[in-house]
Amino acid sequence: MEAKLAAEIPTGPGWQYEPKWDGFRCIASRSGKEVDLQSKSGQPLTRYFPEIVETLLSVGAKQFVVDGELIVPVDGKLSFDDLLQRIHPAASRVETLSQKTPARLVVFDFLRDDKGKSLVSEPLEQRRQTLEAFYSRFLGKSERIDLSLATDNIQTAKSWLKTMRGQLDGIVAKRLDEPYRSGERAMVKVKNIRSADCVVGGFRYGTGKRVVGSLLLGLYDDDGLLNHVGFTSSIAAADREAVTHKLEKLIHPPGFTGQAPGGPSRWSTERSTEWQPLKPELVVEVQYDHFTGARFRHGTKLLRWRPDKKPRECTVAQVRFESKVPFTKLLAQA
Description:
The protein is α+β, with helices and mostly antiparallel strands and 334 residues long. It contains seven helices and 19 strands.
């Protein structure tokens, strides 16, 4: 069961709210001595998380299917970068990482119980109660499996967005009276809306015409170096020609004094990697959903130009969000 994006958390009776943990969605199943971990798209994850496989084999229940999220906490905070490193072809590397930065499985739905009974047709309210009992009896005895938070209180859900900023990808809302609708976007997700002021350190021309296609964004680090952190291509078509003229007047190397846009890859053409360096004079405010690995994870949305903002004020400190509450204490509320 998947989620559709919404601008606001739905309100009213009949809703259950849960954190949208920043990890890999995972359907975890056990049948006797076999454990299978799958992504929501059906891709195999089993070989990348041997510590989770070992944990699920150690519980008393011999068969079950749960829906959850694979996460990697580091120093009390979730690290998506360390999670990404798990998808590695070398089994030895995966084994090393499983010991150095062990993963956890946060469960939030129950699809088949330890008797082999399918629960997908039952309403969420009943599935949650059954999951809590199953977790208390079996899964809760493991140090690597957690029960996700859940509430019907909208104020509590809003507080999670505030206290767990930097650890959550948002909030998920589910109807308590609905079955598990596999393959459907039957849940609602609301993401944290964040913005940052960035220096335009360069740009790329679009294809077809010699007008700007995307702005290359930079943030200053603690050493005063301007690092490339992402891009935005959401420039109105009517504005592109004028923006191009403005940018071309500022073409001057190096553009970025720290990390610069990368070179060609197997997914890009030689043309797509060409970029023009700019004097660090222009500032834009962009909207983004997540910042990890020293980059905006996805493309950003251009909100406005900021002629009132000094480029040197555009630092990486804007995107450093520290949760006020450690991850382990948050789960203790469940």
